[in-house]
Automatic annotation (TrEMBL):
Membrane topology, as annotated: Single-pass type II membrane protein
Family label: Belongs to the sulfotransferase 2 family.
Example of a GO biological process term: carbohydrate biosynthetic process
Name used for this protein in its record: Carbohydrate sulfotransferase
Localization (cell): Golgi apparatus membrane
Molecular functions (GO terms): sulfotransferase activity
EC number: 2.8.2.-
Keyword entries, A-Z: Carbohydrate metabolism, Glycoprotein, Golgi apparatus, Membrane, Signal-anchor, Transferase, Transmembrane, Transmembrane helix
InterPro entries in alphabetical order: Carb_sulfotrans_8-10, Sulfotransferase
Gene: LOC118430697
UniProt GO cellular component terms: Golgi membrane
Domain of life: Eukaryota
Length: 335
């Protein structure tokens, strides 16, 4: 090969290599963009999928409630006390407060939203004297009707057995003196037979002082469950009263149902439905639930006949809100 031809060949080769390198570089850049775009797309799809799943779950909850009310709604005719409803004028939200369903978390969220704050629960409570909640009982009849018709109405519900266990643990075990529950419901001990042993009733050795400087034995959980399963009015309390009685879900057209068991997953969708934007800092964190512990530690000592009485009494809450007593039994005895 002549020298001039060799030179031309080398030049062409270098040119081809340069073009190939450039094409490879372009491909790499495009590949990165494609990867980013694809990743972003799939992230959006997953987010959209979660949102659609939550939308479906919410629609299913509403359908279950409406179906129940169509068949049984005439049973519930008494409108609950207006004071139970917390009003957010800033976001036009109406919340039916039910104890032992995460109500403290919700009150903290609503208080912070209303006053544009980021207080924790303790600090929120400190401010209640200066910045109390607005409640429905402070409005005229016409104003109440307007808010029931146009505001976003929220109800939070909980599995009946979990709610009862939480109520007993809070009111009779952790802080009974502060609330006076041991004294007020001391007669619940009547439900226990005289030969019931201390090991059967549990926590029998704890006898803290009452507010009147007298000692009242802790009402054990089995006695509490037996008492709640009766129809004695002196043993009833809003902390374990049926949610279906407290919030009249067959007479109030609620817009959103939160389950305590999925509160962290439910709240983002509720925020969007209620038009609450830019306050994601107020969304509750995902925390490890103690429901399984409450089930096993508490209900392993309860006779099956007492559980059936609870099922009969709280049947409306089970059916209205999509809970299944049979699942609870399998969950308890399937360990």
């Amino acid at each position: 090969m002549k020298k001039s031809q060799m030179k031309k060949w080398l030049t062409c080769t270098r040119l081809l290599l340069a073009v190939a390198a450039l094409l490879i570089l372009v491909y790499i850049c495009l590949d990165k963009d494609i990867y980013k775009t694809t990743t972003s797309f799939h992230q959006k799809i997953r987010s959209y999928g979660n949102e659609r799943t939550n939308e479906y779950i919410q629609a299913e909850r509403m359908a279950v409630l409406k179906s129940y009310c169509r068949n049984n709604g005439t049973r519930y005719t008494e409108f609950p006390t207006r004071r139970r409803f917390v009003v957010s004028e800033k976001y036009k939200v109406l919340y039916c407060q039910v104890f032992k369903t995460g109500s403290t978390t919700t009150l903290t969220i609503l208080h912070n939203l209303e006053h544009d704050e980021r207080r924790n629960t303790h600090d929120m409570r400190v401010m209640l004297d200066d910045l109390p909640f607005k409640r429905l009982n402070t409005y005229s009849d016409e104003q109440v009707r307007l808010r029931l018709k146009t505001y976003t109405k929220l109800i939070i519900v909980r599995n009946p057995l979990e709610r009862l266990a939480s109520a007993w643990e809070d009111k009779f075990y952790y802080a009974p003196s502060r609330f006076g529950y041991r004294k007020q419901y001391h007669s619940m001990l009547e439900t226990l037979s005289s030969n019931t042993s201390k090991t059967q009733i549990g926590h029998s050795g704890m006898l803290p002082e009452g507010s009147d400087n007298k000692s009242y034995p802790i009402v054990p959980f089995p006695a509490f469950i037996k008492a709640v399963g009766t129809n004695r009015t002196d043993w009833q309390d809003p902390h374990w009263q049926l949610i279906s009685d407290l919030c009249a879900p067959c007479h109030i057209d609620y817009d959103f149902i939160v389950h305590t068991e999925t509160i962290a997953q439910d709240y983002p969708l509720f925020f969007r439905k209620a038009g609450i934007v830019g306050r994601e800092d107020q969304l509750p964190e995902v925390r490890q639930r103690k429901g399984d512990r409450l089930f096993w530690d508490f209900y392993k000592q309860i006779p099956i006949e007492d559980l059936w009485r609870i099922k009969e009494k709280f049947g409306a809450d089970y059916e209205m809100f999509g809970y299944d007593f049979n699942d609870d039994i399998r969950r308890l005895f399937g360990r």
